[in-house]
Structure formats: C-alpha cells, structure tokens
Amino acid sequence: MKITWYGHNCWLIETGGKRFLLDPFLNESPTAPVKAIDVEADYILVSHAHFDHLSDAVSIAKRTGATVLSNFEICNWLVNQGVEADKTIGMNLGGGYDLPEARIEYTIAHHSSSFPDGSYAGNPGGFVIGAEDKRVYFACDTAAFLEMRLIGTGGLELAVVPIGDQFTMGPAASLEAIKLLGAERVLPCHYNTWPPIAQDANAWAESVRRHTNSKPVVLEPGESLEV
User: Fold this and answer.
1) Where does the pLDDT of residue 19 fall: very low under 50, low under 70, confident under 90, or very high at 90 and above?
2) Of 141, 151, 219, which is closest to residue 174 (Cα–Cα)?
3) Fewer Cβ atoms within 10 Å of its own Cβ: the N or the C terminal residue of the chain?
C-alpha cells in the first residue's frame, strides 16, 4: 500500500491496483504540489463538506468517473452537482462498505460539517481502510476521543492524525489520540496550510517518540510512504 500526501488532509492511497483519493483539496490549497487536473482516481473518499476537504471532489469525480464514498448527505449533494448517482456510495458513522479491493469504514469524528452555502452536510467522519491485510486509519478533522481505542483494537499499521490546533486537535492532544490508537506508525496532517494552523512537525515527531510507542513519520507534500 502506497500513501502520498498532497498537503492539508488530501491523500492518495494506492492499493490493489486502484487509487483512493481522500479529501481532494488541490486547486485552492497553498501547499498542494499538484492540481486537480493532474490527479487520477478510482475512488474518492470525502470525510466532511468543508471546502478544504470537498472543493475538488465534483470536478475529479466527473472527469475520472471515480466512485465517491462519503456520508449520505454529501453523496446526495454530489448527485445534485452532476455526479452520477450510481457513482456514489452513501454511508453513516459506524458503517462499512466492502469494495473488491478494500473495506472502507466510516468512523466517528468530533468536528462540524456544512456545504458551501452553509446548509447541513451530515456528520463529519474519518476512515479506516482495510486492504492487503493491513488497516490504515485517517482521523481527518477531529478532536481526540476515547473511542479511538476501539478503532485501534483491530490493529493499525498506520494512523494519520491532525495536529494543526484551533480547528482540530493540536500536537498535545494528538499524543493522547496516538496512545489510544496504538498504531505502528503515525503521520501528521492538517497543519502548515495557513498561519493559524502552523506547527513544527519535527518537534511533534520528537514528542511522539518520547511519549508513545508509535513511530512518527513526517512527509513533505508530494512525498510517499509504503505501508
């Protein structure tokens, strides 16, 4: 399984010969190394409807024919934007969906979610991707929560947690989340996109090494990790 960071919380997960694009925010992102037109996808995962997670989902889905997995409300909204209904898979918290290449689980996230016009966009979430006998967890935009221990009970080769603070958990709270998850390796996300969420990722990594049993890995936008 190959995981590439495109900045903020946008990730490309390549597994089973397929490409899973998570939270496509590229054209307006100040840190993305690529634009939406440069990215191919077989599946798109959308954690919630804020612009910095959803903004390029419609254009990429239409161009590539990718199937979108998200909550029921976001999938309905995408159909109203011209995405084909049979190319959406609506989910809700605690549910999972078995694709030929992977099992996708939609997990709790403590955050908010609204469409560009401010209307209700369902519950925000995170994702567990199970593929190639591995489990990878993307917390997406969230605070730390005790149920992370349950997410980690099946074993996690990798967990991706936000560290930006202000809108999500910050570095200190992420340490508690990492302890609950117990993943072998952990990556940071949702930081250094704009000044309000600026963080020192190397200092965070040193804290992870000192206070948890997980191995931190810090990527630059465009870099990849093999799991």
Assistant:
1) very high
2) 141
3) C
Report the C-alpha gap between 199 and 53 in whole angstroms. Answer: 20
Q: Say if CB 138 and CB 1 are below 8 A apart.
A: no
**CA–CA distance from 195 to each of 11, 192, 200 (Å)?**
21, 7, 12
Own/partner long-range contacts of 172-177 (Cβ < 8 Å, ≥24 apart): 173/143, 173/144, 174/144, 174/204, 175/207, 175/208, 175/211, 175/212, 176/144, 177/139, 177/144, 177/145, 177/148
Render pLDDT for 131-177 as a digit per residue (tens, 0 to 9).
999 999 999 999 999 999 999 998 999 999 999 999 999 999 999 99
pLDDT at 150: 98
Q: What is the rounded distance in angstroms from the CA atom of residue 131 to the CA atom of residue 117? A: 36
Amino acid at 101: E
Phi/psi at 216 (5° precision): -80, 145
pTM (2 d.p.) = 0.98
Domains of the chain by start residue, with CATH:
2-219 (3.60.15.10)
> For residues 90 and 33, what is the distance between their CA atoms, to the nearest angstrom?
30
Judging by DSSP bridges, how do beta strands 125-131 and 134-138 pair with one another? antiparallel
d(CA 37, CA 26): 9
Q: Which of the four pLDDT bands, split at 50, 70 and 90, describes residue 122?
A: very high
Q: Which two tokens stand for residue 129?
A: 């991707």
